[in-house]
Amino acid sequence: PPPPPPPPTFFLNAYAGIPDPLWSRGLGDVYKRQVINNTVRGVIEAARQMDNIGTVYGAHHGIEGVLKEELIDLTAQSEEEISLLRYTPAAGSIGTCRYKLKEGQDEDFKRVIDVLQAHNVGYFIYIGGNDSMDTANKIAQLGQDRGMDLVGIGGPKTIDNDVGDSEFKLIDHTPGYGSTAKYWMHAVQCANEENRGSCPADPVLVLQAMGRRIGYIPAAARLADPNREMPLQIYMAESPCSLADMADNINDQLKQDGRCIVVVSEGFDVGDLGEVKDGFGHTSFSSSQITVAQTVVNYLNANGLAASGAARCNVPGTDQRHSMAFASTVDLEEAYYAGQKACLLAANHESGYMANILRSPGDIYNVYYDKAPLSEVANSERTFPTEWISENGFDVTDEFVKYAKPLVGEGMVSIPMIDGRQRMTRLEPIYATQKLEAYVPQAKR
What is the DSSP track for 169-222? Predict the structure, then answer.
């Protein structure tokens, strides 16, 4: 047989680069999550064990880092700092962005390929949701059109659990969702204690959960009370209720129990919020003029409650996706193995696939790691199964609980501490030498 090719470099999260003697390989867009860094760790540590993979680079602040040719050498980092990625939430180590490569931005696409060619990148792994899977597919195709031996791989990651199809054939669940579900499980337990104690004065407590279009995050509130002992109501973006219906339901609960805990999706339709859009065109509810929860509270208090006192609200923000103390141990483990699988797909030159997690048949929870075509993932749209929404419209069924419960794990993650503070990864600022002229991303000119 012919001699093996020189070891390639890996390009991580819009990361790119590799010494000239090697092929360069890279990773895609890292986004804010409790467990996303463990996927990155899975890729890096798998790459270190493979003879046909050399250096792994990460793009500083995602795809913008590729465009600006700001490529962090992840292979040059100490093993200790890489291992700490397991316990480091969000994307502070490498950075993320809200910049999207859109149709018509031909200069941006050309620049990405120029950067990958300049650093001899052969593997490109992009970590994220449907938009990221679409980007990974397009970049791989563009590279191949220009004669590059470029492998494009997707790494699934989103707390919304909206990647894939509604039949769970492309992927059962995405890394990140289990940890956010665990966050809400504990949050509702604590909120119930608060509401029990303060209900004479504040009988209604409204909690706003993330989830612009799909209800997996607010649905996870039911994990706090699988036996339905709390006066808990859950309103997802898909719930077939109006604001007036919600008020009637809450008042019925107050007449029965004297108090009510309401978990409402940020995507629940309450009318105009003065929405602010992000770089992907999605509504950024935490930046909008008023929140859904506050709108609900204002409506309830203005129209009167069926109990003395007032409604009040809590609106968690990005802590839903970066609270490491609530990370699911199951989620962390699966995120790591998903990263390993992405690395294996790349090393085997299986371009055009996303590493996925599939559930084994049977009553005992078990998963295996496989692959799904990027083109199918990018063009798919997962919805929350209508059969998992209760008949009253403000709860979820036991089937959803059966699906979600294994994802949150049994215990709490043990976080490394120094002097009472969490020890997080701090990478050295070791960058690949820039070889091209400075560039301003097309949409920012």
Answer: SS-S--TTHHHHHHHHHHHHHHHHHHHHHHTTT--EEEEEE--SS--HHHHGGG
DSSP string, 42-92: HHHHHHHT-TT---EEEETTHHHHHHTT-EEESTTS-HHHHHGGGG--TTT
Query: What's the average pLDDT block by block, 10 residues per block, for the chain (445 residues)?
Result: 44 35 38 74 92 87 94 95 92 83 90 93 88 85 86 93 95 96 97 96 97 94 98 96 96 98 95 62 58 95 96 93 94 96 94 96 96 91 95 97 97 95 95 97 92
Q: Which strands sit side by side in the sheet containing 204-209, from one edge to the other?
A: 232-235, 260-265, 204-209, 311-314
Helix (H, G, I), strand (E, B) or coil at 127: strand
Q: Which of 73, 108, 131, 160 is catalytic?
A: 160
State the pLDDT at residue 55: 87
Q: What angle do CA 414, 427, 86 make, to 5 degrees?
A: 25
Length of the chain: 445
Catalytic, 225? Answer no
Contact 155, 28 (CB under 8 A): yes
Phi, psi of 18 (to 5 degrees): 175, 150
Q: What are the residues facing 26 on neighbouring strands?
A: 11, 57
Which residue is listed with tokens 């992000």?
A: 278
DSSP for 247-283 reads: HHHHHHHHHHHS-EEEEEETTS--S-----B-TTS-B
- Residue 381: both structure tokens together: 């749209």
What pTM was computed for the model? 0.88
Q: Is the distance from CB of 163 to CB of 377 less than 8 angstroms?
A: yes
Nearest to 288 by CA among 310, 298, 273, 309: 273
For 441, the 3-state DSSP assignment is coil
Nearest-Å Rg of the Cα atoms of the chain is: 23
